[in-house]
Amino acid sequence: MKTNDDYIRVLSIFHYIVAGIAALFSLFPVIHLAVGIALASGVIQDPKAPFPIAFAGWFLIILASVFILCGLLFSFCLFLAGRYLQQRRKYIFCLVMAGIACMFMPFGTVLGVFTLILLLKDDVKTEFQTTPV
User: Fold this and answer.
1) SS3 for 45?
2) Single pTM value for the model
3) What is the pLDDT of residues 94-118, one digit of tens each?
4) 111, 18 contact by CB (below 8 A)
5) CB atoms within 10 A of CB 12
6) Residue 64 · residue 33 · CB < 8 Å
7) Rg for the chain, CA atoms, rounded
């Protein structure tokens, strides 16, 4: 019979895997960042454009940078949640990250739901409280 320790170990491993997948997906806007840099620097020009093309470049640079940073931050926090699950520390952080992970479909949804189910058990909750920091 599986114990909560086994489930927590498996969930922490899957947190690392989903964090890696999320980091990979968060780097997709690098293409938009490269196009934005090309537009802003003047490499790509259109003399017949009705508005300054550099503005569109800066818009792409800012938007892509925000998406990349948010995605990498999410990946890092998911990685930390896996580490904290393993160490049985920071219960609230793990609970919040499980809820946030549900938005990263389909892998994060499955991971988040199973993590929430496990973390809401009373014996797991007490295990987090009794673990020395």
Assistant:
1) coil
2) 0.87
3) 999 999 999 999 999 999 999 999 9
4) yes
5) 19
6) yes
7) 20
